[in-house]
From TrEMBL:
Keywords: ATP-binding, Nucleotide-binding, Transport. InterPro entries: AAA+_ATPase (IPR003593), ABC_SmlMolc_Importer (IPR050093), ABC_transporter-like_ATP-bd (IPR003439), ABC_transporter-like_CS (IPR017871), P-loop_NTPase (IPR027417). Pfam families: ABC_tran (PF00005). The lineage of its organism: Bacteria, Bacillati, Bacillota, Clostridia, Eubacteriales. Residues 6-237 form the ABC transporter domain. This is Carbohydrate ABC transporter ATP-binding protein, CUT1 family (TC 3.A.1.1.-). The keyword Cytoplasm does not apply. It comes from the Bacteria. The keyword Acetylation does not apply. GO terms for molecular function: ATP binding; ATP hydrolysis activity. Transmembrane segments: none annotated. It comes from Desulfofundulus australicus DSM 11792. PANTHER family: SPERMIDINE/PUTRESCINE IMPORT ATP-BINDING PROTEIN POTA (PTHR42781), SPERMIDINE_PUTRESCINE IMPORT ATP-BINDING PROTEIN POTA (PTHR42781:SF4).
Length: 248
């Protein structure tokens, strides 16, 4: 449980002359979920993309299970990772094919693809949408598809970049709860980026704070915010009342 799965060291990322990231050291432990928080423009998305090997750092190293990433091994390591973005970025095809495509590209056998897609559509409660085309989905449904697509890859590390920020409050709440359950059940290591720290207590107690491209604090929720982490039970119960009223 306490093995390092991903580590960055002496990392710098520049756009032109502008330094966007400067991170001395950061590591992810096998099986943990960490929340990466910070104001808009802090560099969260850039940092996530560097760790997910979608952007190459200007300087410094990213190491996966102790092996430094190079241009030779990057693709193989990249295939151990999955990313969920704020915009679901679905292909213009069915829900089923959206989840299956990544598996096909990775050469997963046909029977296994069917099994895995079926399983993850069930787990995300979208099995009934399998034949629906992506443009006919609500925001919450589309984000469920992109979660199913990511989990179906059975990645070692899952990166989530403000995945629920564009969703309405009740949808966001149920997806936070479901994501929490799925991460616990699968034991997948996860980095959850958000600018909204009220989301953090649903998923984890470990927080890293990024400001102006620098990691300014890492610690438990309470160490960082000086208040106990609290899921918004009060608000949740208000919504439950609303839902049962609406149903009745
Ligand atoms: N494609 C880009 N081209 C130029 N500047 C960018 C680009 N993407 C991000 N930036 C800049 O890099 C900084 C960090 O951005 P970003 O990583 O998106 O922050 P966050 O996700 O925390 O809001 C910001 O100042 C942003 O304007
Ligand atoms: Mg961002």
């Amino acid at each position: 449980m306490n093995d390092t799965i991903l580590e960055v060291h002496d990392l710098q990322f520049k756009r032109g002359n502008r330094e966007i990231l400067n991170i001395e050291r950061f590591s992810l432990q096998e099986g943990e979920t960490i929340a990466l928080i910070g104001p808009n423009g802090a560099g969260k998305s850039t940092f996530l993309q560097v760790m997910a090997l979608l952007l190459k750092p200007t300087r410094g190293t990213v190491a996966f299970r102790g092996v430094p990433v190079t241009s030779r091994n990057a693709l193989a390591i990249r295939r151990r990772m999955a990313v969920v973005f704020q915009e679901p970025l679905l292909l213009n095809t069915t829900v089923y094919d959206n989840v299956a495509t990544g598996l096909k590209l990775r050469g997963v056998p046909r029977e296994e693809i069917k099994k895995r897609v079926g399983r993850w559509l069930e787990l995300l409660d979208i099995a009934h949408l399998a034949g629906r085309r992506s443009h006919q989905l609500s925001g919450g449904e589309a984000q469920r598809v992109s979660l199913a697509r990511a989990f179906a890859l059975e990645p070692d590390v899952l990166f989530l970049d403000e995945p629920f920020s564009a969703l309405d409050f009740p949808t966001r709440l149920s997806l936070l709860n479901e994501l929490d359950r799925l991460l616990k059940e699968t034991g997948i290591t996860a980095v959850f980026v958000t600018h909204d720290f009220s989301e953090v207590p649903y998923l984890t107690d470990r927080v890293a704070v990024l400001k102006n491209g620098r990691l300014v604090k890492t610690g438990t929720f309470e160490e960082i915010f000086k208040v106990k982490p609290r899921r918004e039970n009060y608000i949740t119960s208000l919504y439950r009342v609303f839902e049962s009223d609406a149903a009745g």
